[in-house]
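Predict structure. Chain length: 255.
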Amino acid sequence: MGVSTSETEKGVAVVTVDFPPVNALPVRGWYDLADAIRVTGGDPDVRCVVLTAAGRGFNAGVDIKEMQRDDGHGALIGANRGCFEAFAAVYECDVPVVAAVQGFCLGGGIGLAGNADAIVASEDAVFGLPELDRGALGAATHLARLVPQHLMRALYYTSRTATAEELHRHGSVWKVVPRAELRSAALELAREIAAKDGYLLRLAKAAINGIDPVDVRRSYRFEQGFTFEANLSGVADRVRAAFGTDKDRGQEGQS
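Prediction complete.
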């Protein structure tokens, strides 16, 4: 359980997240993921990183139960800062990051996938932000990198999800494959990327980030301010109180 790193072939490293049962990460998990991505991307022998997850789904966001056990705001602050660091680590990784997404990609999962350089998804993958059902706000910055503006807004306000095939039609998912073929498909793309000159790949990553129309660090941090306001006003506690009860819709995670 936790975050692990392996090098499956020359130039390609795989970072795997494993927090059963649904990959809802605790505060420490977000920081561990950020550290793993930064260290792996900084390895001069690595030219592409594949971000993957074990189990039922790619990521269900933060561990809301950890927040519920906290009488103060320590877990909330930790989760927000941890997500901020993990999302930034993916975006700022020295080399391209390929996200291999299966099952649910919710809340914080959108932050990770949205900041990746490419996404390969299984046929059963779904993407969404159940934030309004979890007493939170955030990661619209990253969802807007996956779908057009008005669809992003509709998905955000309704907490509904989009399928991997829908995102493939929008051009944000590189390839959709059966779940059994997800790892091999992600490695195939990573292998093609890693065949390029490592120095040039690093220059290319820096250049592409430099021409992005949106500063993802700044815009996500702006969103997080409203998450704090929701918590200070008490509305977040009222909404989160339904989490795990019969009133809950059955999805887990937030960003």
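Summary: The longest helix spans residues 74-92.
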